Amino acid sequence: MVRTETPVVDRSFMVPEFELPGVDGKSHRLEDVRGENGLLIIFMCNHCPYVKAVEDRILRDVRDLKELGIGTAAIMSNDPTDYPEDSFENLRARWEEKAYPMPYLFDETQEVAKRFGAVCTPDFFGFNASGYLQYRGRLDESRKEPVTGAKRELFEGMKQVAQTGQGPEEQIPSMGCSIKWKDDG
Fold first, then answer.
1. Contact assessment for residue 174 and residue 5, using Cβ atoms and an 8 Å cutoff
2. Tens-place pLDDT, residues 41-81
3. What are the C-alpha distances in Å from 107 to residues 2, 10, 54, 125, 147?
4. How deeply is 166 buried, as exposed, middle or buried, from its count of CB atoms within 10 A (0-12, 13-18, 19+)?
5. What is the rounded CA–CA span in Å between residue 143 and residue 172?
6. Do the beta carbons of residue 166 and residue 134 sit within 8 Å?
7. Which fold has domain 3-178?
8. pTM of the entire predicted model
9. In which element (H, E) is residue 62 found?
10. Which residues contact 110 (CB under 8 A, 6 or more apart)?
11. Which InterPro entries does the record match to this protein (predicted)?
């Protein structure tokens, strides 16, 4: 697994339109998942050890952010050919098992990940109500091993976005497995 870090937040980046199938059997568009105070898009997958290590904390933060008017969608963009754990069926099973509080979307063509500039799992994109990127940092300082008393950086950053429309000035990049791109040929 190649470890990759996210780039610095680009506050001029506006959330791209998308429409993807969800494991719930519905098609989801940007407008379906946007909250009144902002939007969090999480590129994640089932097989990544970084995601597995923080999954429960991600779900906790998504639930808490919903109360602040932040809508969320998880998007899986890996090529599942070499990673069967990331197949549509296995995504659905995980979504049901963990009772995900957000849609889990399948980006089979990987076009949505490319439009966002996603690089790893997990990769967090936090947008304000106007659709501008305000958060591109990490979940917390724990990385793969929990740290007692770790500051909830994603939650606090998105709470600030919900309240002010602006993300924190200082953000530490997220780290995870690189997205598994399809062979070009």
1. yes
2. 999 999 999 999 999 999 999 999 999 999 999 999 999 99
3. 20, 23, 22, 16, 32
4. middle
5. 11
6. yes
7. Glutaredoxin (3.40.30)
8. 0.95
9. helix 49-66
10. 77, 79, 179, 181, 182
11. PRX-like1, Redoxin, Thioredoxin-like_sf, Thioredoxin_domain
